[in-house]
Design a protein that fits this description.
This protein has 191 residues and is of the alpha+beta class. The protein has one domain: Beta-Lactamase. 37% of the residues lie in helices and 24% in strands. The protein has 5 helices and 6 strands, in the order H-E-E-H-H-E-H-E-E-H-E. The chain has a 6-stranded antiparallel β-sheet with strand order 2-1-4-5-6-3, sandwiched between helices. A hairpin with a 2-residue loop joins strand 4 and strand 5. Helix 2 runs antiparallel to helix 3. The structure holds heme C. The site of heme C has 27 residues, from helix 2, helix 3, strand 3, helix 5 and strand 6.
């Protein structure tokens, strides 16, 4: 069965009362910024549901804002290992977004040396995403979550070592060409 059909089938099942957890996982190949989301070899094209697509667009826009801001902060203000890191600024911003009831986004580390235990991949979604983004070379991974009758899009997007400056504090990033971190979003589906 084609995965889109699987998604539809599962949605029907859920309206029949199965309300918990994940409908389906879709892996996407290709960067979020600008690159068209292509279907991976053994997986499906992204789910074609207008609400999911709208939500995905929101996340892509936020992802671009956050990553641009973090790199700007890092390159402009962070000059010494003792300076407050852009990661701390990002985490303060994410906490405010969550507190204000918008959505949930977490910074996670994908290497075996994560500085703050809070930043380790936590649940099944983040652990799967970590494997796909770290080992699989994928740039984004998503799942749909159904909880208490509400749908959420969960998406993790990769963070590579974007600047020499990163190595000043994370020595083990040196020469690493893959994703060393990710942003993990849980966004209520936009109706
Ligand atoms: C000034 C030192 C410093 C610089 C420069 C720096 N970081 Fe960090 N980074 C930290 C600290 C400290 C933490 C843990 C912060 C926290 O969780 O509050 C962290 C956390 C992270 C995490 C979350 C995983 C973990 O280890 O906790 C990622 C991913 C990350 N940094 C990536 C980067 C990237 C990419 C760059 C370059 C753009 C960068 N960092 C530059 C100090 C730095």
């Amino acid at each position: 069965m084609r995965p889109q059909a699987v998604a539809r089938g599962r949605e029907e099942e859920m309206t029949k009362g199965m309300k918990r957890k994940i409908v389906m996982a879709v892996a996407m190949v290709g960067g979020l910024a600008g690159v068209t989301l292509a279907a991976s070899a053994e997986n499906a094209a992204p789910i074609k549901d207008p609400e999911i697509e709208r939500t995905r667009q929101h996340i892509k826009m936020l992802d671009d804002v956050f990553k641009t801001a973090v790199v700007l902060i890092d390159e402009t203000y962070v000059k010494h290992p003792s300076d407050p890191s852009a990661a701390s600024a990002a985490k303060a911003l994410f906490a405010a977004m969550k507190k204000n009831g918008w959505y949930d986004v977490r910074l996670i580390g994908l290497t075996d040396k994560v500085g703050d235990p809070d930043d380790e991949p936590k649940d099944a979604f983040e652990k799967t995403a970590a494997k796909r983004l770290r080992g699989g070379g994928e740039q984004a991974y998503e799942e749909i979550l159904e909880k208490d009758g509400k749908r959420y899009l969960r998406m993790a997007t990769g963070i590579p070592v974007v600047s020499e400056n990163c190595v000043m504090c994370h020595a083990h990033f040196k020469g690493d060409k893959g994703n060393i971190g990710a942003l993990s979003y849980t966004m209520p589906v936009v109706k």
